[in-house]
Amino acid sequence: MGIDLSQFHQVFFEESYEGLDVMESALLNLQPDTVDSETINEIFRAAHSIKGGSGTFGFIDVADFTHVIETLLDEIRSGTRKITSETVDLFLQSVDCIRKLIQQHDAGEPCVIPEAVELKKVFEGILSGGDSENESVSSPEPASTITEIDDQTGDGSQADSPLTHGWKIYFKPELDILKTGNDPLRMFRELASLGALSITADISQVPPIGSIDPEACYMAWELELDADVSKSAVDEVFEWVVDESELRIEPLGSDDAVSDVKPEVLVETAIEEITLAPTASTPEVVVQPEEMTSKPKKDASKVEVSSIRVGIDKVDDLINMVGELVITQSMLGELGLDFTMDSLPRLLEGIEQLSQNTRELQESVMRIRMLPISFTFSRFPRLVHDLSRTMNKKIELKLTGEQTELDKTVMEKIGDPLVHLVRNSLDHGIEMPEDRVKAGKPETGTITLNAFHQSGNIVIQIIDDGAGLNKPRILQKAIEKELVSENDNLSDDQIHDLIFKPGFSTADQVSDISGRGVGMDVVRRNINELNGSVEVESTEGQGSVFTIRLPLTLAILDGQLIRVGDKVYILPLISIVESIQSFQGMLHRVVGGCDLLRLRDEYVPIIKLSSIFNIKSTTQEMEDGLLVVVEGDNMKVAILIDDLEAQQQVVIKSLEENYKRVDGVSGATILGNGTVSLILDIPGLIKLAGVQRYEYKMANNDDDRAA
Amino acid sequence: MARILAVDDSASMRQMVSFTLKGAGHDVIEASDGKEALGKAKGTQVDLVLSDVNMPVMDGLTLVKELRALPNYKFIPILMLTTESTGDKKMEGKQAGATGWLVKPFNPDQLLATIKKVLG
Amino acid sequence: MVNNETESSSITRINDDTEDSVAHEPSEQYLTFYIEDEIYGVDILSVQEIRGWEPATEIPNAPEYIKGVINLRGTVVPITDLRCRFGIKQFEYSGVTVVIIVKVQSGKSDKTMGVVVDAVSDVSNFNKSEIHPAPELSENKNTAFVKGLGSTENKMVILLDINKLMNTSDDTDLSRVSQVVSA
């Protein structure tokens, strides 16, 4: 006792939520026909951990519920049971149930959840009705996880009741016993702690000295334990080796003379057994009341509802910076003790350092708030799975750019508008499978969620390959609703934009999916409130792209510093494919066009940063420079620079905040020395350089990407 | 006091085990999967290994086999922390070379009692 | 051109306790500065701070008068050289070259920008009635950002509407500004 398990609860809750997310996404990936054992394993592991933890920390309802699921998963894993799409749906529902159960514990107010009870019954039904006999018997009883401990140690419970006055034991371990880390001497010591022990060794099996394997155990022992202990206590000593050994445990006959020899010892061992041994003496029950009493404490910790998981590297950064701050502080402190005007430069230097430290510290603290957008994206596979079932549509969801980081607050607020847009694409965008086939499209529609950084913004796109916006209908509706007049001459974009007008809804029948009355105007308003914008581009018959742009209060980028002349720019590390130092033989000069780099089997257009940015390069000849091959906008280009410098994480600052958009530049950052450096925007550079896509295509005759 | 390697992919279990053992004066090294554990076991000699069975990357059974193949871990006690109460898992563990097991859920006292069993 | 009865003192030093002038006439405070031989003024309320010149990071393909961007306590601030903006021959920046950091209204938001001037002169109070309209009331957009003219110590001060000035599109030729106003 003495250890307050509630201190581990928060960690358990968090890892359980994570585990549930893992289960959910793995379940969504599961193809019932071709079961991938690693995916099943992953799901099993997550369920298993939740069960183990909830049992340990006393959340019995969670443990019981999870146990049933785990059992079924184990059968699927071992191949004794087939998985169907119905079971997948059941598992998904159970994930929701477990999440609810844990949330209630997390909130400090556990109570019965009816769905959980129902669902558990369904699972138990499957288990008992199915082809597995052994598990189904034990699992329906609610206390099964608790009784496990009883099972292992308490199987001899009937034999326990009449205590004998000692035990005669014959123990002959297998030769390899030592190689499992089991040591007979240790066991004897344990026995001796129960009472007086006499040991006789049988060395008859020990081979002649020359042929002894020093790692083998050739001995056997006869032991007599003079103690008033149950057989299970003795069994327990040999618990781990019983299967590989010859072991006989018999009562020491009826001579009770020993019992009054050392009464104190008996009392002592009895106490020891109760407090220490993991016997059948209701171990789990002891834990539970402890959990109950710790509830009030739980309430106190409830205040910190919102927590954030931070990568160790970010914390290390902080610690380093605080370290520097401390050094600066002590330097200034020392200076102040004995200050003369001579030390003024050092004082100024110190103050400068202090402000640098403070700024870096501030940025690092802000950085902690940045999370990958995968936290938001992760809820969509489930949403799309469930909705497409409801609507009888076939839809595949693709997620890209999930590692794009954005501020936690922005992320929390963008969730709902995103859900709305995805639902909208599902509902209005993607057609019914038969209509898709008629239109000559694949039966399964695709919705892509994409995120990336651009111009100090985070851009999130919802792309569908559905029917596209129906312009005539939108226009007609807008005229009906008097949003525009018939005489207005509107461009396509203007027509598309009408869907964001208040009170606009084009669904022929208002469905549950896109909600009632709540239209795209609310989405736009919510996004505008975040100082962002949303736009739609659409091609009839081919699909729509909704583009959300959100300003970044702060964003982080892994940057590669590059140098051209005396200017240092930053390339997003993620866009870099490779860099090439000597490329004389690979150049393909094009008269009147842009030079190409022959890279293995493709031609890559070369962009000279010095010429498109109008800056002086230190290298006279192209061949003296360095080519960095980058990818952006689905095409590769090679950027000619003078040199590569360090790689570092940079904080993206907006140029537009105080200036305006600059072609070829996505934002700025402040380097360690306090100067501003510009972050290059690959698609922007491609545009700026006027590299034509057809040029690229000509170089790749069989590539029709330009279509 | 002993140096103990605690291996579990669940952070809460790992913390609980580690906290309990440290409270009893042991030196604890943590690892979140078999591979990490193996690396750490090679880096330093531990007196006892406590390992979960189901873990990503490298599971507990593989870890035991790998450890037993190392000369300095031939005789070191290795306990499996397992939830399976059925016989086969225990046998699998034994066959892999585990010393014994501790069935989850367990409380800190049960953990300490079991540790005492192997460390004397 | 002159449309008001001039009072005894046309400008008031802010340091002076000229309660009377403040009392019966609304006045505005301007930060005045030199470019070439002219004195210009900007509304003191839009001025955030005055800094010495420091090298800025150049912005590719930006107009010549945009000297680049600097790091102002963590925000990226563009620097405009007014001399260059007005088409006046540039000279080397020196230790006394000054950057005035101003807050400019642009659309819904505020932008922080830096303006390079030759030297800062003073902070002066101008009574509203003492501000004369800019000479050319024609359609000439070049004078749209001149709020009016004031005078201090018998020298004319061109009072700039910084919001309009900084929002004037890049390609607008402002090279005749100084000639226009001094004409």
Q: Can you describe what's shown?
A:
- The complex is a heterotrimer of chains A (707), B (120) and C (183).
- Chain A has 707 residues and is α+β, with helices and mostly antiparallel strands.
- Chain A folds into five domains: 5-153, HPT domain (Four Helix Bundle (Hemerythrin (Met), subunit A)), CATH 1.20.120.160; 157-279, 2-Layer Sandwich (Alpha-Beta Plaits); 312-368; 372-551, Histidine kinase-like ATPase, C-terminal domain (Heat Shock Protein 90); 555-699, SH3 type barrels (Roll).
- In chain A, the strands form five sheets. Chain A has a six-stranded mixed β-sheet. In chain A, strands 6-8-9-11-10 form a five-stranded mixed β-sheet.
- In chain A, a hairpin with a 2-residue loop joins β16 (596-599) and β17 (602-608).
- In chain A, α2 packs antiparallel against α3 and α4 (85-106) packs antiparallel against α5 (114-129).
- The radius of gyration of chain A is 36 Å and the shape is extended.
- Mean pLDDT of chain A is 76; it is low at 131-161, 254-305, 507-517 and 694-707.
- With 120 residues, chain B is α/β, with parallel strands linked by helices.
- Chain B has one domain (3-119): Response regulator (Rossmann fold, 3-Layer(aba) Sandwich), CATH 3.40.50.
- Helix content of chain B is 45%, strand content 20%.
- Chain B is built from five helices and five strands, in the order βαβαβαβαβα.
- Chain B has a five-stranded parallel β-sheet with strand order 2-1-3-4-5, sandwiched between helices.
- In chain B, α1 crosses α5 (108-119) and α2 packs parallel to α3.
- Chain B is globular and about 30 Å long.
- Chain C has 183 residues and is mainly beta.
- Chain C has a single domain, classed as OB fold (Dihydrolipoamide Acetyltransferase, E2P) (Beta Barrel).
- Chain C has four helices and eleven strands, in the order βαβββββαβββββαα.
- In chain C, the strands form two sheets. Chain C has a six-stranded mixed β-sheet. A five-stranded mixed β-sheet of chain C has the order 4-7-8-6-5.
- In chain C, a hairpin with a 2-residue loop joins β7 (98-106) and β8 (109-117).
- The radius of gyration of chain C is 17 Å and the shape is globular.
- Chains A and B meet through α1, α2, α7, α9 and α12 of A and α1, β5 and α5 of B.
